[in-house]
Amino acid sequence: xxxxxxxxxxxxxxxxxxxxxxxxxxxxxxxxxxxxxxxxxxxxxxxxxxxxxxxxxxxxxxxxxxxxxxxxxxxxxxxxxxxxxxxxxxxxxxxxxxxxxxxxxxxxxxxxxxxxxxxxxxxxxxxxxxxxxxxxxxxxxxxxxxxxxxxxxxxxxxxxxxxxxxxxxxxxxxxxxxxxxxxxxxxxxxxxxxxxxxxxxxxx
Length: 204
Ligand code: SF4
Ligand code: SF4
Prior knowledge:
By secondary structure, this protein is mainly alpha-helical. The protein has two domains: 5-117, Fumarate Reductase Iron-sulfur Protein, Chain B, domain 2; 122-201, no CATH class. Helix content is 51%, strand content 6%. It has a two-stranded antiparallel sheet with strand order 1-2. A hairpin with a 2-residue loop joins strand 1 and strand 2 (13-19). The protein binds iron/sulfur cluster (2 copies). One iron/sulfur cluster binds next to helix 2, helix 3, helix 5 and helix 6. Keywords: Iron, Iron-sulfur, Metal-binding. This is Fe-S oxidoreductase. It comes from Saccharococcus thermophilus.
C-alpha cells in the first residue's frame, strides 16, 4: 500500500497521527474510501453536483480528492477548501452508495485537517471563535442569541434590513450567514422536539 503513515506512542497503545499529507492527529480513516469503486451511482443524489456539474463537487470527486491527500499525491492547499467545505453534509450520497462509503464522515474528518493546516484568519476567525468558543458551549449565551434572533425576525428588523439592502454593507460572509438564518418558531421546535437545549432556546 502506498499510504505513508507515521505513528506516535500515546500511553500504552499506538495512535495514528498522520496519513500521507494529513499531518495532524485524527486523520481520516482510509478504510472509509477503500470501498469506493467510482461507479457514480451517488452523483444524481448530490445537490452540489447537480448545481455545479463539477466532478470535484460530487461525492465521487470529493472521495477521490480526500484519498489523494491520504496517499500523499495531493497537498492540502486552498484548492481543497471549496470542494470540501461546500459539501452540505446532507448524506444523500451515503444512502445512494451501494458500497456504503461514508462520504459525510470522511468530509468531517478532512475538514478538521484542513482547518488545522490552513487556519481561518481575520474576521472569519473572529466569527468562528465567537460562535464555537464563546457561544455554543454556553447554554445561557445560546439562549440569549436565540432571543435576539427571535427579536430580529419578529420585530420586522430582518425584513427592513433585507429590503433596504443594508446587508450589502456587511462583510459578504456575514451577509451569507444572515441569508440562511433559520426562522425562529414552531418548525424548529417540532423538528428538534427531542433536543431540550434547542427546544427551549428557539421556542416562539
Ligand atoms: S461513493 Fe459510492 S456511489 Fe459514489 S462513486 Fe464511490 S462507490 Fe460509487
Ligand atoms: S453529503 Fe455532500 S457529497 Fe454527499 S450528497 Fe450531500 S452535498 Fe453531496
